[in-house]
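dumping this here before i forget
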Amino acid sequence: MAMEVTQIECMGACEQPITVAFQGVGRAAYLFSGVIFPDDIADIVSTAGNFLAADKGWIEDARPCGRLRFCLRARIPAL
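structure:
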């Protein structure tokens, strides 16, 4: 499974404008804000790997996500 990186103009978190989201068909969706570039790149990559490996994208143990787990604003179950 692969991921695609896309830049979006607005994610609705204006007070913390650097946000990252993960979503996929049949998978949970995640929204992170307060992300710091380039400091959080390794944590973003780790979280992406966990997202791809997790059943339906539902990450049970967020510790491997590093600081990004404290930036989580929304986790939406798969439909």
